[in-house]
Amino acid sequence: MTGTGLCHEALLYDSDTAYCDAVLPFLRDGLADGDALVAAVRTDHTALLRDALGADAAQVMFIDREEWYRRPAVTIAGWRGLLAQAQARGHGRARIVGEVVFGGVDRHRSWTRYESAVNALFADAPAWIVCPYDTRVLPDQVVADAHRTHPVVRDPDRRDSTGYRPPAALLPELPEDPPPVTGPPAADLVLRDVSELGAIRRTVRAVASGWPDDPLDDLLLVATEIAINGLRHGSGQRHLRLWRADDTIVCEVSDDGPGPPDPLVGYGPPPDDSLGGRGLWLVRQLCDAMAISTTAGRTHVRVAMTAT
């Protein structure tokens, strides 16, 4: 690889041997080049790589992928921080092995969107990211989507992906699945003006009765931010609705507007000199799930949070 921009590559493998044959040279070449090395991988792969690298393993930052891949926006913020730290230490480039936790079916769409968004959010970053996909265990659709979200694919031959779709084209085709709700909402408010934020917070507190203070504070912030976003950027009649099922609360703000034109909205922070644009970014950091959808002329921003 040459150049200073991002290289985002999917490694499709079906054995530990195939995995090591690709990942170990990648890391060893990075050591020779003076690159920063990070591996957010499975526990068994951490053991494989440590054993094979020997003393050189100390030069690799190993991360528990189960902790790292919990929320896409949080993971993106984490990568931004690690890349900044690598540059501050004098590394000209970072090599990353990132094994996304696709988990159950309800996570597939979110993390496929993440894989696509990375191409835009880190387009100019001096980073080479290899994303291993275990074809023995991952669903066929997840593996097929790797061709659409990675400009380069290796299986084991390395080549440009003929199925690659830029994020601006792919993300609108892969909308997030809205967090599910059952029955009528526990609360339904018509939003008219930001002066009503006090009423919104009182309503949220009532629906979230019994929640611990810390998650309640996060829920209040999330509800307030999506309400302000709807009032400032939406149009027509705005509603805030809340549903509760056990310790999970779903909050939705809807309006008659077309929704945000940028499919990457909220995935990254706004520029430092921007006066706005942090609301949905904060929301994506805090909530367990978030979806923006436009149907029948109305836009819905729906989030889910659990009091854990």
From TrEMBL:
Q: Please report the stretch or stretches of sequence annotated as the Histidine kinase/HSP90-like ATPase domain.
A: 195-303
Which CDD domains does the record associate with it?
HATPase_RsbW-like (cd16936)
GO MF terms on file?
A: protein serine/threonine kinase activity
Annotated MEDS domain residues: 8-151
Annotated Basic and acidic residues bias:
149-162
User: Mind listing the UniProt keywords for this protein, alphabetically?
Assistant: Kinase, Serine/threonine-protein kinase, Transferase
Q: Where is this region: Disordered?
A: 149-180
Q: What is this protein called in UniProt?
A: Anti-sigma regulatory factor (Ser/Thr protein kinase)/predicted DCC family thiol-disulfide oxidoreductase YuxK
